[in-house]
Write the structure tokens for this entry.
Amino acid sequence: MELEYLMLANKTALVTGSTSGIGLGIAKALARQGANIVLNGFGDVEGPKAEIAALGAKVAYHGADMSKPAEIEAMMAFAAATFGQVDILVNNAGIQHVARVENFPVERWDAIIAINLTSAFLASRLALPAMQKADWGRIINVASVHGLVGSAEKSAYVAAKHGILGLTKVTALENATSGVTCNAICPGWVLTPLVQKQVDAKAAALGLSNKEATNQLLGEKEPSMQFTTPEELGELAVFFCSPAANNVRGVAWNMDGGWAAQ
């Protein structure tokens, strides 16, 4: 298909935490629709850039540490200088730490709130003026089913993800009469490197095979007994960017295999 017929041709999407996992899945889905992509994250960079370029999209990378406001500001300026402006902002960067509240290290709490919640606010406030001027923009916050329900030993993560849903609603309301929308995606278990670590830890702690540990992890929470994929989440992000979603505003859309339905 020629680029001019693609839904997001001439749009630019910045996806934080997009060198692997959910973020990369969303970036690739947006690239398939013709968007220019700005990647962000740690680890392998050239591989993800090559994957995006292979889809025919223009791609750039900025390695901002999402816990540092000055680096987020530099990333947003870089995206605007490279492609004109950020039309689609996907706030996906996140980290995790598991411990009971009384044992939770204060520095880990601060890091999780900074990266999982505050970074979304900082990037959004910088993206909104250009979106408002153009009367078109999409902010997609990657929350979690943990923005809807709690789980033991995940106090900082659950607090941050509940906060993301609050930020989503307020951003949507403040722009409700414009062409700028803000919505949240709430995945259940997605087989990312972050989740694979939890599977591995469960297998080691209980002396289980990887398959047994996976089934136990899913069985505790997710009635479908299957992982949501980054590709499925990417297609939901594409829907949020489509004309069909022009009046979808402030929603928390869970793709969780029935987790929150229980």
About this structure: The radius of gyration is 18 Å. Residues 168 and 250 are 6 Å apart (CA to CA).
